[in-house]
Design goal:
The chain is mainly alpha-helical. It is 72% helix and 0% strand. The termini are far apart.
């Protein structure tokens, strides 16, 4: 067919019918481009066409989405078209803008134009209204959706379930599910809606958002009454609701209920079950649902597997997640980036970064390009393990976002890397990323760390210019930062700005309170705390503890001041906080202060908790005698009676510690009401620690059926204290008693007994006990041998000490320096210097270092035999090795040289001695004995004078000091001559029970007793000589007479 223009030139003009027939043919063949081209030729040649031609041309324009041209053409050229034709075209135009251009706003404008232009003769179809409502709802523009709905109702169109569902979903989308429910109720009440399953499913979503998942039962009943069928989507939504509430059991029950109704699970419903259990940490059960899903022939999707992978990673079971990942790969399922991102995050959390980089390589091989989200996960993982520099290198090859730089900044802040912070800040600024408030908060913290306080203020002030508003974290970071660096005034300014906002944050109050306490601004901190209480925002006990600790630094008055200032807050809160203060004071060891606060509360009429009374009384009773204890106990019993077991326990505790005879009768009466009540071993420990070891002993022995459960440690503590107090006989009795209760004492306990016996002069009994140890399956330790060797050496029974030493070595025990020192000291004191030197040689052969006591003991040996030449050589030999004698060693050397007339040498050694810090400290300790403020300067001054008389005086002064020090160490100069408290009438058969020890031959006992006489004389020989040297002959004679009297008594 020739072109239209050629036909016209030939004088042939096509008729309207032929034109319409042709373009109808083109429209049927879906050739809108040809129609538009042909119509252009018609228009160019001014060929007259009909309204039908115009309609088909408009259709072609709409088909090609030339909506603007079609709109203009319809408004200007289609005036004569039929109403039906216009309706169809307006429907197509409005729906085109709505569905194809996703511009329902333009569609609504056209709808208004259409309704207005044709006076109600041309009204778009119901579907056009429905399309607009659906599109506006999906975009969350509910005001426009309702506007269209109202137009629809005005045109007397009945809206259906699809419209209702769209509106309900739209309200849920914008977070207003309550409006969705209201709309549904109005629609139902108007009678214009017959809801179907889809509508009810949307309704379930609204109830879920409101946390009213239990109200779904009402929906179910309504559906059953209306005979609306349930489907898998409805139940899946319901199950989701229970998972969101954390009610796993109910979610599972609803899933089973669905199956019982004949509704089969599909991939989505199974995935919801698996996801719900995985998120709640029950990933193993989720795997069980996966197996069930596959068994029922439902094919899992990648999303299904992804939820399980996520569940494993959240529980830290990354290896299990990786195994599942491999199985998914083997199934041929195509992985996406999200799966890899989950695994990468899991491995980052456990610090396995090698596997992270392996996964990244795997993604690259499979053509999966990691997005910035995945890389941010890797960067975060590196920063968390302190590898921020490596993370920084990765970001240099990326186009990072605000999260990337925020993570890097946070990493450098945690590592306190100032250079890294500054470089990251510069890179961020160069990248031109728009900061969010999270980034600003991290940057503020980073700037604080590098000390850029002015930049902190500048950034804070420019937040509004960046369309950002400070949040609670911003204010906390600023307040905490300024307080940390002592800029409390700036912190207070920020806090005042925070107060003027509508932000409610306890954390900000806590930060400023902590800062004020750190800057000793306690009164202001209390005022801020009171403001926090008045706002009823909740009290952070950790922060209140900071306030109490700060008040405590000002003493009792500081705490009472705190309590008085908060007395006007709500009564319940005041009572709670004061009781909390009482417990803190008790824990810190201030029960007196706690008691004072308790009295203040009592006068105010406040409620004092039973726990507070108990805490105070427990501390007071276990401590020293206190006048407050008994009145407070009376008040406690009066207020709480003997109904609560705690009250009875503290009263029982008090009675036991104060040795009341009727305590056991009271305990027996209490057992009738509280079968499990008893006194605890802590009472026994309290008696022991309070110096009432005999009361503790009596309590244990007399307790009988009331005896609490005691272990070897409890018995050992009492036994040790009995021995130290001079009651080894009772200690032995307690050993036997412990055995009857089934407690097996160890060698540490018996070492205490042996030491106690020896210290009270009961060396025979000590050896009897020692010989019996192996028969009761206890092996003597180094401490056992050291104790006996030490006392044998002190008594001068040196041959026995040496035999015991050799026996110890044969047993495979290694003697230490202390044991060698005991032997060396013993041999030196009794004039057997060469034997002492042999032990020194043996000591060095066994790679044991001599100490200051070793050197001092040998110097004493040289001193007693008068060989000061060898003493001086020995002194310098060990001084060159870095071992100097102690105070007494120096005194042996000085006195020996002085006695030999070697005054200058004595003076030189004396000066050296007085320069030693250890010697000066000992002299200062003796100050109280002499009542002189600076005793150490007196011998130094005498030494500097250098005269014979001054040296003599210095030696005498230092000898007196030596006696004071020695008496403190030995408790009494006459210690060995006192009658032992618990051994005076002790028989062998009484001291050592027949079950534990065998009787010892009395002849052996006699020999040991004879040896002990020599011990008495040898032990005090040096003391008697010292008294004679000082001219105190009367004291020396008295000591000798008492010693001889003791020896005569033994005969």
């Amino acid at each position: 067919m020739p072109p239209l223009q050629t036909l016209i030139k030939r004088g042939i003009t096509p008729t309207v019918e032929s034109i319409n027939e042709f373009i109808i043919y083109l429209s049927q063949r879906q050739k809108p481009n040809y129609i538009i081209s042909f119509f252009s030729q018609l228009n160019y040649n001014k060929v007259k066409v009909s309204s039908q031609t115009h309609s088909i041309f408009t259709w072609a324009l709409l088909k090609l989405h030339s909506f603007e041209v079609a709109e203009q053409f319809m408004k200007t050229q289609m005036v004569k078209s039929s109403p039906l034709c216009k309706i169809k075209l307006w429907d197509s135009l409005i729906q085109g803008y709505c569905n194809n251009r996703l511009d329902p706003e333009k569609g609504l404008v056209l709808l208004h134009d259409c309704l207005k232009s044709y006076g109600g003769l041309v009204v778009p179809s119901c579907f056009t209204f429905t399309s607009l409502i659906h599109r506006f709802s999906s975009q969350g523009n509910m005001s426009k959706a309702i506007e269209v709905l109202e137009l629809m109702i005005n045109e007397r169109y009945a809206f259906d379930s699809f419209v209702c569902t769209s509106v309900i979903s739209g309200f849920c989308k914008i977070g207003k599910p309550e409006l969705a429910l209201q709309f549904f109720d109005n629609a139902v009440n108007s009678g214009g809606l017959k809801a179907n399953t889809v509508v009810y499913t949307a309704l379930v979503s609204s109830l879920r958002m409101l946390g009213r998942v239990d109200d779904v039962f009402d929906v179910v009943r309504k559906m059953e009454s209306e005979e609306v069928a349930f489907d898998v989507v409805f139940y899946t939504s319901w199950v989701c609701g229970y998972f969101e509430e954390g009610e796993l059991a109910e979610a599972f029950r609803k899933s089973r209920e669905m199956v019982r109704k004949g509704i089969d699970n599909d991939t989505i419903s199974f995935t919801v079950l698996i996801d719900g259990f995985s998120k709640e940490g029950h990933v193993e059960k989720a795997v069980g649902f996966l197996h069930k899903m596959m068994k029922e022939g439902v094919k899992p999707s990648l999303v299904t597997y992804t939820t399980i992978l996520l569940g494993f990673c959240r529980k830290g079971k990354v290896d299990e997640a990786f195994s599942l990942f491999k199985k998914i790969e083997d199934m041929g399922i195509q992985m996406d980036e999200f799966v890899y991102a989950i695994l990468i995050d899991g491995f980052c959390r456990i610090g396995n970064l090698d596997q992270v980089f392996h996964l990244l390589d795997d993604m690259e091989k499979k053509g999966i390009k990691p997005s910035i989200i995945t890389y941010n996960t890797v960067i975060n993982g590196l920063c968390k393990v302190g590898r921020t520099s490596e993370a920084d290198e990765i970001t240099k090859e990326l186009r990072g976002d605000v999260i990337t730089y925020s993570t890097l900044l946070h990493g450098y802040v945690e590592e306190e890397n100032s250079q890294g912070i500054l470089k990251t800040k510069q890179r961020f600024e160069e990248a031109g990323c728009k900061m969010d408030i999270v980034m600003c908060n991290i940057l503020i913290k980073a700037l604080f760390m590098v000390g850029a306080f002015e930049k902190v203020n500048l950034l804070y002030q420019t937040l509004p210019e960046m369309d950002l508003s400070a949040n609670s974290i911003t204010f906390c970071t600023l307040i905490n930062g300024f307080c940390k660096f002592g800029r409390i005034e700036e912190a207070l300014e920020v806090f005042d700005e925070f107060r003027r906002t509508e932000i409610s944050s306890v954390a900000c109050y806590n930060c400023i309170i902590t800062g004020l306490c750190q800057n000793n601004m306690i009164d202001m901190a209390i005022e801020v705390f009171i403001e926090l209480c008045e706002k009823d925002m909740g009290v952070n006990l950790k922060n209140f503890r900071t306030l109490v600790d700060a008040a405590l630094e000002e003493g009792l008055m500081g705490v009472l001041n705190l309590a008085s200032k908060i007395e006007n807050i709500q009564d319940n809160l005041y009572n709670f906080l004061c009781n909390y203060i009482i417990n803190i004071l008790c824990k810190k060891g201030f029960p007196d202060s706690a008691g004072e606060l308790c009295m203040v509360m009592k006068r105010k009429g406040s409620v004092i908790k039973s726990k507070s009374y108990y805490s105070i009384l427990r501390c007071l009773i276990d401590g020293k005698e206190n006048s407050m204890t008994r009145p407070l106990l009376n008040v406690y019993v009066k207020e709480y009676g003997l109904v609560k077991q705690r009250v009875c326990m503290i009263l029982l505790h008090y009675l036991f510690l104060n040795g009341k005879d009727s305590t056991f009768y009271f305990l027996e009466s209490l057992k009738k009401r509280f079968s499990n009540i008893n006194f605890s071993s802590s009472i026994i420990r309290a008696l022991v620690n309070g110096g009432k070891v005999l009361d503790a002993y009596k309590l244990v022995i007399e307790a009988e059926d009331f005896l609490p459960e005691m272990d070897v440690v409890d018995y050992s503590i009492i036994i040790d204290r009995l021995c130290k107090a001079g009651y080894p006989r009772k200690a032995l009795d307690l050993c036997s008693f412990a055995k009857t209760t089934g407690v097996c004492l160890n060698i540490v306990t018996y070492n205490s007994v042996i030491n106690g016996l020896c210290s009270q002069g009961g060396l025979i009994e000590a050896f009897q006990l020692f010989d019996s140890l192996e028969r009761i399956n206890l092996i003597p330790s180094e401490v056992t041998y050291a104790t006996l060797i030490n006392y044998l050496s002190k008594q001068g029974i040196l041959s026995d000490a040496k035999q015991l030493f050799e026996r110890m070595v044969l047993k495979g025990l290694k003697p230490n320096t202390h044991i060698y020192n005991s032997l060396i000291d013993g041999y030196c004191k009794f004039g057997q210097l060469e034997e002492a030197l042999r032990f020194l040689s043996d000591m060095e052969f066994n790679c044991l270092e001599p100490d200051e006591f070793t050197v001092s003991a040998l110097l004493n040996g040289y001193y007693w035999i008068g060989d000061m030449e060898r003493a001086v050589r020995f002194f310098y030999e060990f001084k060159n090795k870095g071992i100097s004698p102690d105070f007494f060693g120096y005194m042996y050397l000085v006195k020996g040289l002085y006695t030999k007339g070697r005054i200058e040498e004595a003076r030189s050694i004396l000066r050296e001695m007085l320069r030693l810090k250890s010697v000066v400290n000992l002299i200062n300790q003796a100050n109280t004995e002499y009542g002189i403020e600076s005793l150490e300067s007196y011998p130094i001054r005498l030494c500097e004078e250098g005269s014979l008389r001054s040296i003599h005086e210095a030696v005498n002064v230092l000898t007196e000091i030596g006696l004071v020090i020695s008496s403190r160490r030995q408790q009494s100069s006459y210690y060995a001559l006192q009658t032992p408290k618990d051994i005076k009438s002790c028989k062998i058969s009484d001291t050592v029970k027949s079950n534990d020890l065998e009787k010892v031959d009395m002849a052996v006992c006699d020999d040991v007793e004879k040896s002990s006489r020599f011990y008495d004389f040898g032990f005090h020989y040096s003391l008697i000589a010292s008294l004679c040297e000082k001219g105190e002959t009367e004291k020396a004679n008295n000591l000798v007479r008492e010693m001889l009297s003791s020896l005569a008594g033994n005969n």
